[in-house]
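User: Run a structure prediction on this.
Assistant: Running it now.
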Amino acid sequence: MKILKYLSVLILFTGYLTIEVSAQSTADLYNDGKYDQAAVRYERAAADDPEYYLWAAKSYVALKNWDKAIEMYEAYRDGFKSANKAQVNELISILRKPIEDIKVENLGDGINSQYGESSPRISADGNRLYFFSSDRPGGRGGEDVWVSNRGANGEWQRPSLMPSPITTTGNEAPEIISNDGNMMILFGNYDGYFGGGDLFYSYNQGNRWTTPCNMGGGINSKYFEADVTISPDGKTLLFTSEENRVGRGSGDHYDIYISQLINGAWTTPKKLPSSINLQKSNQRGAYLSSDGRTLYFSSTGHASFGGYDLFITRRIGDGWDNWTTPENMGKEVNTVLNDLYISVPSSGSYLYFNRNTTGNNNDGYGESDLFRMPIPQEFRPEPVVNISGVITNQDNEPIKATLFWSDLDTNEQLGYITSDAVNGEYLVTLPYGKRYLITANQKGYLFQTQVLDLREGADSEDGSSEVKKDLQLNEATEGARIVLRNIYFDTGSANLRDESQEELNRLFDIMEKSGLVIEIGGHTDNVGREDSNERLSQSRAEAVRTYVIDRGIAEERIQAKGYGESEPIADNETEEGRQENRRVEIKVLSNNYQREGTGDVLDDGNIDLSQSEEEEVIQENLYQLYRNAAFRGGIPARSACYGDIPGNVRVTTGGNSSIEVADNAFTGSSIGFITHSGKGAHGYPNVSGAGVAFYSGDVNGERNIWAYFLGDAVGGGIEWNKYSDLSELTSLPLSFDYGLSAYLVFNKEENTIDTGGGNTATQTIYRSGIGVPLMARVRYNLVVSDIKISPYASYNYNLFSLLDIEPNTETDGNGNITTGMAEAQNWLELGARARFKFITGGLSLQNSDAGTGVMLRAGLAF
């Protein structure tokens, strides 16, 4: 019986091994793309282990044998206890949908190669494609960024390598390109990263890309960050990071995070809701389309056929917490391999992505290829319109200006961009459904506005339209004229309608921030009596004048005149011409208005002509907004950024290149002199010396100080201080410093003693002091006329100290002064530091039970 028992066990064990070996070899067939053979073997193995029905189903999906795939999924659902029945049912439902004629095309060997291509990023107009390729000939090694332009025949041209500093000998990948093509976010390990792979930004300045700069600690961390997409205005950022960056998790999976640019800083990243980020699965490659609402992403969870599948979800409402249930993009689109990194032009008609290939069945050129497919109507984003043009001055020369767009019906400003400084070109993408007021504005020029009515849907088949709008700005010099095109009155009256408010407010902004003296001219067409038209035009000009004066502009700066029908600018014989003639026009009379009480005459050299309220933000294009936010979040050592940013200073760090820190009286390395008088708590009164301060360490900033004492003292000390910026937490310019000091000082002192009999003697002694105090300091950082001033209060607690006490006036009988040792006191210090350019100084008062001392500092900062 025992022999039979052992034989039974052996037979079962042998059978188990046979199944495992068979399954292993079948997996090799599957991974090699030999799905027909793998399907048969998996189906056979599933008779003993129903889990293999899943792999049989995947194999039939790869073969596009939908009926057989459904059969295997049903067998898996019903036969394997641990099957996710809800997801399996959803996959079955997708497979049962009618077959659509969707052509997924490989971009061909002009783009793809044997070296593998990934992360396609298509420009808003669909005519430029960025991607990365690994160790491709002509590259610099590793993953390099390449770009291809679409030719006149619609074919993609041979890719060219993005030049340095975008491409390096390390690994880089394009993440997102702004709609105007001037801003790029990249993944990489450029100089200055936190670790794990960071996100960097670069800006195209006159056909030259700036050195990629770290997006700062508001976005990047010690974890992995990649796969960026941005909202149309660039102020909402979605990206991929490890699941345990926020909350619990093993760190083995990836989730999609969101951060918003508010008050100049990135909000703390948080995960998109659990309806998108499923547990124990990966979510990557999010792409927010130009409508700002349709989100594409890839996931290994949800209902996925295998690897990463492409999904779509849409934002509900104006927030970012509510989304529709993610939907698999279908059996004709997704495969059992990895389908990743979607990119969609603003037309919303085509989708670009990359897919892993097997090398068999002629399915690709490398391990990963780039593909394109038309987006089924149900998965397309909401239609948008691309508005492009050139902004020029009165001499038809291109200029850099700011283009604002607002909702004409609500007067809500929706966004802005700056035109290219070299060619004056701009591109903005707007969704349908609104009337927009487009305003071009720049310092020194009169603004220009256009109304764009997009309340009707798109006419083109692909759901998008192209609108060309060239805008010309006239310099605000005497005699210059502009037409206020968006001033609306009730019919036959001078009553201003609500939709005129945006244009009127912009006129007020110009007047408030300039020295212009203007005439408001009212004009009509030739319909009606001439005298009636003149009265109506005068009343309407007066209404505009009154509005601006009521907001605070001096009356003498604005004249109103009605011209009636006397100055037509178009033919009154057509309705279009008559509409052009019905207008309110601004004429500059002078630009040197003397403001009351100043005694100064403002001329062309010292006024800000037509600088609107938004002009204060104009110079902060997307690149500069990202720079500011990066500095607010903290920049790691060695991060390369062009120029200094107001309110921040670059400092050299020990062993690394630089960090950016808040600029105040304490920042900047320095060398200077120190004097200390009185009986300070340090235990070395009446000494002077020199100090050297330098920065080192991480983004929070460490400050190391060496002090060398001279004169009546020999010795020195070192301080290690670390600071934290409290301005964001408190809304005040506060900082908190903490650190340790260590000092050893021998003070030379001469004392006169009574030796008896009316005789005295002078004896020289050296008092020693050693201490390791812990310091905590709060300071208030001010800037007054370019002088950085930081009043502060600190408390120093001696963790360890020994100090010679004051010598007694009594002798030991042999003429020697009695001495002893005691602990140095803790002390409070009140003071202020100041720095003006390269000059630095300070004054402080130290007080303890041992006495009071005054410390002076003076030196040079660098």
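The chain has a mean pLDDT of 79.
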